Amino acid sequence: MLDIKFLRENPDVVKQNIKNKFQDKKLPLVDEVIKLDEERRANQSEADAIRANKNQISKQIGALMAQGKKEEAEEVKKEVAKEAARLKELEDKQPELDEKVREIMLVIPNIIDPSVPIGKDDSENVEIEKFGEPVVPDFEIPYHTDIIDRFEGLDLDAARRVAGNGFYYLVGDIARLHSAVTTYGRDFMIDKGFTYVIPPFMIRSDVVTGVMSFDEMDAMMYKIEGEDLFLIGTSEHSMIGRFKDQMLDESQLPLTLTSYSPCFRKEKGAHGIEERGLYRIHQFEKQEMIVVCKPEEAMDYYNKMWSYTVELFRSLDIPVRTLECCSGDLADLKVKSCDVEAWSPRQKKYFEVGSCSNLGDAQARRLKIRVKGKDGNKYLANTLNNTVVAPPRMLIAFLENNLNADGSINIPKVLQPYMGGKEKLIPTK
Hints:
Layout: H1 4-9, H2 11-20, H3 27-66, H4 70-105, E1 126-131, H5 144-149, E2 154-155, H6 156-162, E3 169-170, H7 172-191, E4 195-197, E5 202-203, H8 205-211, H9 214-220, E6 222-224, E7 229-231, H10 235-241, E8 247-249, E9 255-264, E10 283-293, H11 298-315, E11 320-324, E12 336-344, E13 349-358, H12 362-367, E14 370-372, E15 378-380, E16 382-389, H13 393-401, E17 409-410, E18 424-425
Parallel strand pairs: 4-9, 8-14
Antiparallel strand pairs: 1-11, 2-3, 5-7, 6-7, 9-10, 10-16, 11-12, 12-13, 13-16, 14-15, 17-18
Helix pairs in contact: 3-4, 8-10
């Protein structure tokens, strides 16, 4: 959410930013919120003037009563009564105006970084760099569900009976591999100096609106009926919510955290054949990284964070590339974002396995996460998040890139301690 003062003083900048994000339908909101803000400030100013005048009149009444001028005092009291009625009218109106301004400000997108390429959607994202050599083996690579089936590691039919489409049972070595990857991701980030956290898996509505846009919320979040609770779509939601309404001391920053959680997502819409099986699902697990820092530190941490994901995937013998997200592909709260994509030798192309985002002070403004500097000045923190690793989708890249012609799966050295020392997984059928 933008600072209303910034919008008031820079309406053309805000409008151009909306155009850059190809959200022209939101352009009228800028003038609308400026008009509402003027009304709100005028309302507040009049109320403040009445309160100040009321204090002066109260002193006048006291002086008149002390002088025995009761009739004059009574006349002044009538004036106070009239002012009190007007004050109540203004005070009743102020919350309504505040809420109208806030509702619009929550919809106007954050100002994107000047380095973000302008484009309508993810088809116009820009490749930054490739890491590792993409290889297509001289044997056919089956679809990931068929690979897993050789290990008797997946039961989608039972999951459909129990929970419906978009759910799964992982079994045996594949389930163990899933947990091994997540645990390795946890330890990898701890070694980078991040503090491990397990957060709540449900959050209240005021946290939801604090960490994401309304469009994201509608597309992603599952609500608990009859309660003010939502299942998290990623641990970023409850991790950032942890600092809601907090005044952090500058000496605490930066906060570098890595969190584990299950994630729940609606995943609305039709999906292609390549998104069957474990690719696009309603429930998965993820290791995340979160940073809360000073504004001047944000971009440095942004670059560190996505590089950590690249390093982790390369340690698992998976080639990856990074893509700069264009303006039209950025969620409304994001200042800058890049995707990490893993190589699929079966499809002979890359696919998304993680996303790194700098949200500036947008989440902090919504959630009132403030910092007290050494000089006593107060300012809003900056927040960032990035996927460390998110199986089971990540497992697709792992299985394809570590598959042998005989159907066995190589276990990279870094993962072997988490797999009981196994160097390979041998199919059972």
